[in-house]
Structures are given as structure tokens and as C-alpha cells.
Amino acid sequence: MARIHLPSADEMTPEQRSVHDEVVSGVRGRLVGPLRAVIHSPDLARRWSRLGEYLRFSTCLPKKLNELAIIVTGRRWNSQLEFLIHAEAAVAAGLDPACVEAIRVGGSPTFADEAEAEVYEFARSLQQTGSVDASVHAAVTKRWGARGVVELTGVIGYYTMVSMTLNAHEIPIPADAKAPFSPANDCGLTTLPPCRMVKAKEHTA
After folding, report:
1. CB under 8 Å to 109, separation ≥6 — which residues?
2. How does residue 183 score in pLDDT terms, banded at 50, 70 and 90?
3. Cβ contact 155:120 at 8 Å
4. pLDDT band at residue 27 using 50, 70 and 90 as cut-offs
């Protein structure tokens, strides 16, 4: 159960309902996750939603890389709902389910795609050290340009805020969903290991 009341549409003030209607008519299609709590501050919720829509749906990064950065962030913060939603989105976007599962259990994912490894290490390093190794930053910048590395950092920062909000107010996962992490790991921060790289198998005639 959430620590604060999560109002239904019928319970909302006119200001809250205005934000609600803007959100559900947009790309999200519904008011979910942290916005269920943030709606208590309609002005914040409106700005939050617009920023989140951009960082999830409109960055220059491929969707699977965006979602990879998000699930690394969700796992670092043990944010059940964030990981649940975005693990599914990451697989749908083309990320190897084995990599998603490795991140879920706190293991070392193995990537065949250097771009995926770079994003994983960028997000992992930023979450765990507060900075990014120069070589990792340079690799992401070389591949995606200044815009890409700035937007990736924004995604990680935004979803850290999402994780904090979900955790602080104990926003529940859907009743019919299984929590991705065990209760023993559902607190504190998770230390994620470096990833591994494997060369894609060469096709033979």
C-alpha cells in the first residue's frame, strides 16, 4: 500500500484533473507510476510528465539503449515498478532477454553489441560513483555525439528521480504482477558488476 493517497480521476481537483487529462491524451495513454503521487503537486506533475515523455520517447538514442539505461537505474535503486515496466519495454525494443535477466538478478550481463555495453557501463558508473570514466564517456560521445551523451545522462538522472519517488512513497506494482526482486533485496542500493563482451558468431555458408 502506498504511503500517500493516490487519487482516482474522480477525486482530483480541477488542476489535478487538467494534468491527468493531458497525460492520458498523450503518448503515455494513462497516469501511472510516480505521476500517481506527483499529481498532488499539479504544476510539478505537468512539468515532470513533459520531461519524462521526451526522455523516454524522443531522445536520439535507439529505444533499446534508452530502456537499458532505465533498467540499470531501476536495478541500482531496487525500484520494483520501474524495473518491471522497463524490463518488458527493453525486451520489446530488442534487448536480449538474457541481459535483462542478468541485470535483474544483479549479475554481469554479456553483450554482443558494443553500443549496449557502453550504455550499460555509462549508467552503472554514473549510478555507483557519481561520475563516468573518461574512456566510457568518450565512447558514447563518439557514437552518439554531444547530444546523445547529454540525453543519456538526462535519462539516467530523470529515472533516478522516478526511482526515488516510487521508493519513498511505496507506489505499488500491479496486483497481478510479480515483484522482480526478492524482499531481501528490496531496500538500499544494489552494486552492479561490470558487463562482459562476446563477439557475435560469424555466419558460415
Report:
1. 98, 99, 100, 102, 103, 120, 195, 196
2. low
3. no
4. confident
Q: At what angle do helices 114-129 and 63-76 cross, to 10 degrees?
A: 30
pTM attached to this predicted model = 0.93
pLDDT above 70: percentage of residues in the chain: 95
The runs of H, that is alpha helices, within the chain are 14-24, 35-38, 42-57, 63-76, 80-92, 97-104, 114-129, 134-168
Q: Give the right CATH number for 61-197 from 1.10.3720.10, 3.30.160.100, 1.20.1290.10, 3.40.50.2000.
A: 1.20.1290.10
For 131-168, the pLDDT digits (tens) are 999 999 999 999 999 999 999 999 999 999 999 999 99
DSSP 70: H
Q: Residue 197: in which H helix or E strand, if any?
A: strand 196-197
* Spatial CA neighbour of 195 closest among 137, 128, 112: 112
pLDDT of residue 204: 45
Query: How many residues make up the chain in this entry?
Result: 205
Location of C-alpha cell 494534468: 19
Q: Where are the domains of the chain?
A: 7-58, 61-197
